[in-house]
Each structure stands twice: as structure tokens, then as C-alpha cells.
Design a protein that fits this description.
This protein has 103 residues and is mostly helical. 46% of the residues lie in helices and 8% in strands. The protein contains 4 helices and 2 strands, in the order E-E-H-H-H-H. The chain has a two-stranded antiparallel sheet.
Length: 103
């Protein structure tokens, strides 16, 4: 996912070093400890968009709650998929769950 549309406006959406720093300051934990917690994923997504907007000089003035209120599950799922490394079918073993990256 390179962009996300919220309230009818497109914003850049990508993982940056600034996003990881923002996330750690916001939550007190490293991104690698996020797990499957939806609140933490929304927080990380918010940090990624704030950081990408900052880097691209795109105005972004939503607070986290306004952002979350405009976010749909499809947006969140698309973002989660975009930050997960692609897994090749040849590396998956039949009968075993795929390994979850620690990011």
C-alpha cells in the first residue's frame, strides 16, 4: 500500500524509520512487539502515514482518533498485508503454520 484514502483525500502510506520512532514514543514498545493487536496496528499505521506525509511535505492534521474513525477494515487489512514480507510458496511447509516475521 503506497497510498490510503481517508475522508476523500489520499495520503502516502509507507513504513519509515520516523514511523518506527513515532510508534515507540507513542506506545513505549518496539514495532517488533506489536503482534496482532488491532489498536497497536492502527497506531503504527497512523505513525506511518504521519511520517510519510512529513517526508513528502503533505499536510496531515488528523489526530489518531479522527484517523481511526475514518479507517475501514479493508484499509487496515491492506496495510497489514503491505508491511508483511511476501512469503514464497516454496518456503511454506505443508501442515505447518507460516512463520510470522518479527519486523
Amino acid at each position: 500500500m503506497n497510498k490510503i484514502k481517508i475522508y476523500g483525500k489520499e495520503y502516502p502510506a509507507r513504513v519509515t524509520m520516523g514511523a518506527m520512532r513515532r510508534y515507540k514514543r507513542e506506545t513505549g514498545q518496539d514495532v517488533s512487539l506489536m503482534g496482532n493487536d488491532i489498536d497497536l496496528l492502527v497506531t503504527f499505521m497512523y505513525c506511518c502515514i504521519v511520517s510519510a506525509c512529513n517526508a513528502d511535505d503533505v499536510p496531515f492534521d488528523m489526530d489518531m482518533d479522527k484517523f481511526a474513525d475514518g479507517l475501514g477494515m479493508d484499509d487496515l487489512n491492506g496495510f497489514a498485508e503491505s508491511i508483511s514480507p511476501a512469503r514464497s510458496d516454496s518456503k511454506k511447509k505443508k501442515g505447518k503454520a507460516p512463520e510470522v516475521p518479527s519486523t
